[in-house]
Amino acid sequence: MGDIVVRNVSKTFEGGALHSKVVAVDNVSCEIAQGEFLCIIGPSGCGKTTLLHMLAGFTGPSSGDVVSDGKVVTQPGPERIVMFQEYGLFPWMTVAENIEFGLQAKGLPREERRRLVAHYVNLVGLTGFENRYPRHISGGMKQRVSIARALAPDPQAILMDEPFAALDSLTRDVMQEEILSIWGATKKTFVLITHNIDEAIFLGDRVLVMTHRPGRIKELLKIDLPRPRDASIRSSDRQFLQYREHLANSLRKEVRSFVDEESNTGHRG
Amino acid sequence: MARRAYFALVAIARGLEQWSLVISMIVLWELGVRFSWIDGNLFPPPSKIFQALIDLAKLGLLWKDVVASVWRVVIGFLIATVCAISLATLLARWRRLARYVMPIVEIIRPISVIAWIPIAILWFGLGDKPAWFIIFLGSFFPIFTNTYLGIRSVEPIHVQAAQCFGAGRLLFLRKVLLPSALPYILAGMRVGLGVGWMCVIAAELIAATSGLGYMIQTARVLIETEKVLAGMITIGVIGLGMNHLMLLLERKLTPWSHHAV
Fold first, then answer.
1. Inter-chain touch A92–B160, beta carbons under 8 Å
2. Residue B81 sits in which domain range?
3. pTM to 2 decimal places
């Protein structure tokens, strides 16, 4: 129940110079169990975001399919909420209105919406900031709004696209810990894209390493660290450091190929 | 209290300083006519224009013309706002329809509203209706163009967020698309109202028997130059007021955008 199954998924983008085809994702298969925390890691441009967008249903695979809860995903829906890079909050809505949006989309009555908004505002520690606009709160607080907004409609899965990329490293550490405790409390499926090795190990049940173009699964590493995980394991746990060493080696080759390609073509970003 | 008085004084001084050039020009003009450097028949001195304004106001004529003109603009502008926002939103979201409709819009847009006055009289006669029509045409395009741009400029990430929450069409329109475009729409409305205000005067010069445009036209025929200028100044001041009102509305309706504190 509630599993997301990715079956032989490929995605090819056509067009560009000389009508070349770019294979963004190549024959990816994996199963994400209900309640699992899966981290996807890989060099820039490896098709991580494309894969996430296919999980969400924003774009369909060129071949293969994504099955969520037994049904083939054909369009985005409130069972799989995406948390975007830079949060994707609506700047014209207050904190409370942002969180309420998904509940309105669900068609919940006003009283119910009020109650849920208050609950999630409290959960992410934003009491007192309900009526602020996103531009008047800090990056960390925007992140919390984004989490609350994603959780409020009670989805099965939350798909996060480099959620911490815009945060400073101190805030980032704190937010990782908060995400982890929220995940522990809600038991929803979390899929998180990152290119930070420590983040992937600290958060994930498994870490999916992707190759650089075409994006394939290089390995699926199970992280056997006991939960709840304490913040200190990032610097002191031997097992953690071994995982880090392993992933760093695994990724180095991929990043190398990415850098080489960049310097060959002069392409940036 | 003393602090407050001090700030009030500073504000007044600032205001005086800002308007000092205008004030000195008025003084020069007045003196120029008194000392016969300037022809007082073609350039009646400010004191005479001011007297004309007072006389018109006393007789209640000015007020009547102002109300007639403003009322026409309000009606023409509101119709234009509703039509322009609806059409622009529809076309911005339905590109296939836009392919066919846009050429029509682009052909009508460059036709000066003045050129519409003769046909407006033929269609609607004299009075309010041709004026509404002319104002509608003048206000429509700035609002249309801005709304279209605003709807096209909605961030893809906001569209995706709405999709992934499963928002229906109406919720998407009300809570995402229109608020996202609102700063553009309001800017277009401000320009549109300004153009509409210019249009009402043009229409009244020819196609009406009341309003500020009609008033200055009548004064011209009677060679009451100071009345013509008094009417023009009234037009300018009301235009300024309208612009300020729209800026106020922008601040009120888009508290999230950069004007807000």
1. no
2. 59-253
3. 0.85
